[in-house]
Design a protein that fits this description.
With about 140 residues, the protein is mainly beta. It has one domain: Sandwich (Immunoglobulin-like). About 15% of the residues lie in helices and about 40% in strands. The strands form 2 sheets. Strands 2, 4, 5, 6, 7, 9 and 10 form a 7-stranded mixed sheet that branches. A 3-stranded antiparallel sheet has the order 1-3-8, with no helix packed on it.
């Protein structure tokens, strides 16, 4: 009888966990980077259902007490990644920015992000609650 109660509670916890997803963790390989380095973003699916996301991400810089979006010079391929439960995925992040009055996509080298505090945001989707933003912060040192 006792094992049935324990099994019932375990089943209830798993059901509730699955219904409150998507569940994921996002992290970078380090907290601070030098100009020219490429951080490695890791997405881990810690939930019971698959999660979905693209190659794209947004970068923000902390300026005067608020987050300001950084213009990046990249186009991202519209590709959907499907990450099964308890798997991880890695992506290299290029720390470059697009100077004012310039167009993205021109084949040339772009300047490195200046020193400062940054936030990377990536949209991750899954059942049953739809999409959420993964956010990680890092520093660029001079």
């Amino acid at each position: 009888m006792r094992w049935r109660v324990g099994a019932g509670i375990t089943l209830l916890v798993l059901l509730l966990w699955g219904l409150t997803g998507p569940h994921f963790m996002a992290s970078l390989d380090k907290h601070s980077y030098s100009p020219g380095e490429e951080p490695e973003l890791t997405i881990r699916n810690v939930g019971l259902t698959p999660i979905y996301f693209g190659q794209d991400y947004l970068l923000y810089r902390w300026e005067n007490g608020t987050w300001v979006e950084v213009r990046t010079p990249f186009f991202f391929i519209s590709r959907l990644y499907d990450l099964p439960p308890f798997h991880s995925w890695r992506q290299s992040i290029t720390l470059k920015y697009l100077p004012e009055n310039e167009s993205p996509g021109e084949p040339r080298s772009y300047p490195d992000l200046p020193p400062g505090r940054y936030r990377l945001i990536k949209k991750i989707c899954g059942l049953p609650l739809g999409c959420r933003n993964a956010s990680v912060e890092f520093e660029v040192e001079g």
